[in-house]
Amino acid sequence: MSLLNDPSMKEVVDEFCDESLQLFNELEEILEEFEDDPTQTEKLEQFGQIIDRVMGSAKTIGADEIATFCELGKAIGYKSSQVNDRALLEVVCAIMFDSLELLKKMILQIKEGNSSSFEETSSTAFVTRLKWLKEKFNDIERASCAADPDANLSQTSIDDLMSSLGL
Amino acid sequence: MALKSDMKILVIDDMATMRKIIKNMLQQIGFKNITEADDGATAWPMIQEALDSPEPYEFIVSDWNMPQMSGLDLLKKVRETEALKKLPFLMITAEAEQGNVVIAVKAGVSNFIVKPFSAAVLKEKIEKIF
């Protein structure tokens, strides 16, 4: 049973909902700032970083649909921050606004104990749209807060390091 | 090595939900002495202060992605400090990107957990560390 359906975890789930709504409001402000000045592509990276925070909690409490939205939003945010195609960035901004609206609806459904009705929010169709958008940035590698994108190690070094930690 | 139930643990995550979940799990495992911090930037002075006290932290559980100071930057600060070089440090992340894992391993992380995880997985990782 996921935490989402565990009555003893209701307080944690409620807290998740409140924190997420607060972060979604922050994300809307970031998108508004970007909309006002589309040259500030770093705002999209900021978007990716903040939505990533919701993703981790969503995965942990078992809010899988929300986690999927956030995962795609994160990748699109980071990747789109690395391009300068104004027309494409306008599409990104519009779809991210719509995503936030849907995410808020899903959070409210969880708050009302009605998370099984995500279908009504057309989340599946929207995920397809997000995946389509993500594909527009397929040639861009960095999709997260990469700690050091220049650090290229050989596979052998990677394997040795991981096995030395029992990973 | 048997785990001490009164081991002093610091849980760091910018999401209060996650801190609560991790704390619950640690309590389920049997730990009682758990403190929380909401960012690496908040945690670092706490770790330093505790180091000068009779009860330094014995185990750090930290999220990776945090707004002011990331888990990786905190880990680097910890490892740069002679007295903290061997402080067990468990990193929690929503995505185990290979490049990032390697960087954390090089920085001296003790182990890694990928979200979502259960109390059993957390316990297993802690047992591996100690």
Structure description:
The complex is a heterodimer of chains A (167) and B (130). By secondary structure, chain A is mainly alpha-helical. Chain A is built from six helices and no strands. Chain A is 68% helix and 0% strand. The two termini of chain A are 27 Å apart. The model of chain A is unreliable at 146-155 (pLDDT under 50). Chain B is of the alpha/beta class and 130 residues long. A five-stranded parallel β-sheet of chain B has the order 2-1-3-4-5, with helices on both faces. The radius of gyration of chain B is 13 Å and the shape is globular. The model of chain B has no long low-confidence stretch (mean pLDDT 92).
Largest interface pair = A-B, 35 and 36 residues
Strand percentage of chain A lies at under 5%
Cα-atom radius of gyration of chain A: 17 Å
List segments of chain B where confidence is low: pLDDT < 50 over at least 5 consecutive residues.
Answer: none
The pLDDT mean of chain B sits at 92
Instruction: Characterize the biggest β-sheet of chain B.
Output: 5 strands, parallel
Distance between the termini of chain B: 6 Å
Number of helices of chain B: 5
- Largest beta-sheet characterization of chain A: none
The figure for the number of domains of chain B is 1
**Can you count the helices of chain A?**
6
One letter per element, helices H and strands E, the order of chain A comes to HHHHHH
- The sequence of SSEs of chain B as H and E is EHEHEHEHEH
CATH homologous superfamily title of chain B: Response regulator
